[in-house]
Every structure is written in C-alpha cells, then in structure tokens.
Amino acid sequence: MEKIGLLAGVGKLPVECARAAKLLGYEVYAVALLDETDPELDEAATECAHISIAKLGELLAYLKEKQVEKVTMIGKVTKELLFSGKLIPDAMAMQLIMSLPDRKDDTIMLAFVQALARAGFTAFDQTALIHKLMPHRGTLTSREPDEREKKDMEFGFRMAKEIGRLDVGQTVVVKEAAVMALEAIEGTDACIRRGGELARGGAVVVKVAKPEQDNRFDVPTVGKATIESMIAAGATALAIEADKTLLVEREAVVKLAEEHGIAIVAM
C-alpha cells in the first residue's frame, strides 16, 4: 500500500481527507499539529502522531521514520500563532521563520513546502483526495438570496478576489455594497463576527480562492463553524466560489443554515 503523510490543522477536513485516502487504499500517517486538531483523526488515520507545528525537526523525522514520500497539508493553522507566544519553535522552525522576507500566507507556506522538499517529501494538491467536497455552481439551500443579497455577493466576490490577489485573506463581509470587514491574520470566523457587529444584521459573507491559488495549501474551506459564526453575527447569506471551495459536512452545514434562514450560493 502506498503511504502518504497528512499534516493536520483544526477542523473536520483532516478527518474527511484521512478517511477518503484510506478508502482509496492508502496508508495514512497523520500528524496532529495543534492541540485543537480533531481527536477523531486518531481513528481515521492509519496512525496519528501529535507533534507541534513548531517542532519541525521532530515532524520531519517522524515522516522519514514512516517512509512517507508524499505529504498533504490540510486543516486550519492560522498564522496568528507566530505572534501568540504559545509556541516555542525548535532550531529548524526558527531558521525557517527568520528566513522569511515577509509573513504573508503564501510566503510562509511556500517556505514550509520548500523545507519538506529539501527533506525529500513532495507536497501534493490538498483537493486531490476530496475534490467531491467542492460544490458546483448553484444555490445549496432552499432559500434563494434576495436581490440585495445577490448584489452584495457579486460586490463581495470582486473584493475578496482583490484581497486574495494581495495575499491578505480570502473572506469579506459586506452589506449594501459596503465592506464591513476583510479577513486578515484573525481568520474567517473572527472576520465574520467583526463584520456582523458593524453591519448590525443582514451581512453577506463571501469566501473565494486566490486568483493564483496554490492547491497544495490554504484552499478556501467552509463548514459548520462558518455558519455558527454567521448566526452569531446575524449574517443572512454566504457565497463561495464554485468548484474551488471545500465544503465540509455539507448536509449538516445546509441543515444548520436552513434552520436560521441563511442562503448559501456557490458562484
């Protein structure tokens, strides 16, 4: 059986990926990078090690021990960890951080991919095993967005593409063609809550792929947590980019959105 490594962040996506890979006949050697990584990964993978993302040397040694050659990186790891003081990087991770010309998402992730390559590992497309989780164009909920929401989706889509081009974030919150919040280091959920507070109800959330999206990392993803943040923020509609956004636990997401009158559109 072919072996793959799965470097797992937060959320259900690593579990979904591990299960899909095993169904396809792979041995899956997962590494839970954070304490918050879903505990179901222990059962979903062939084997799961718990190694902090800050311990790059130990992580690479584990993959070498398991004779893994191909690796996928999946799940949320927000770069605010670089500034939190919660992680103490080892010498290899510190050297990587100090070599960065800036700390944009793609800069960090490309440096990590290059570190993997130097150690003999190939990072592959995040979506290769779970492409079926990307919805095609259309409305996913029974409620269609109203005219105002449609206009905000179109406006928000253009704004989100622009911040993606700048490698700042992938999500915007808008209302009546005004930007309430742009995603930056805080991540999608915090952006939604901040934008919803400013909008005072009726906000539209838009999440897209970057114009030059590298599918080896940071593919846009939405799940139940996204909808829960929208509910808390009083947001009424979500637009995602069709065929380029991973939708985790689709049935549960749509059900929760339906219960709260939230329209979801892949556009």
Radius of gyration: 19 Å
Structural class: alpha/beta
* Percentage of residues in DSSP E strands: 15-25%
- Widest beta sheet: strand line-up: 6-13-11-9-7-8
Question: Looking at the structure, what is the overall shape?
Answer: globular
Q: Work out the number of β strands.
A: 13
Q: Output the helix-strand order.
A: EHEHEHEHHHEEHEEHEEHEEHE
Q: Give helix % range.
A: 25-40%
Q: How is the biggest beta sheet arranged? A: 6 strands, mixed
Describe this structure in words.
With 267 residues, the chain is α/β, with parallel strands linked by helices. It is 38% helix and 19% strand. It has a 6-stranded mixed beta sheet. The protein has a 5-stranded parallel beta sheet with strand order 3-2-1-4-5, sandwiched between helices. It has a two-stranded parallel sheet with strand order 10-12. It contains 10 helices and 13 strands. The protein has helices at 13-23, 41-44, 56-65, 81-84, 91-98, 105-118, 147-165, 188-199, 224-233, 250-259; strands at residues 3-8, 27-32, 47-50, 70-74, 122-123, 138-139, 171-175, 178-182, 204-207, 221-222, 237-240, 246-247, 263-266. Helix 8 runs parallel beside helix 9 (224-233).
List the helices and strands and how they pair.
Layout: E1 3-8, H1 13-23, E2 27-32, H2 41-44, E3 47-50, H3 56-65, E4 70-74, H4 81-84, H5 91-98, H6 105-118, E5 122-123, E6 138-139, H7 147-165, E7 171-175, E8 178-182, H8 188-199, E9 204-207, E10 221-222, H9 224-233, E11 237-240, E12 246-247, H10 250-259, E13 263-266
Helix pairs in contact: 8-9, 9-10
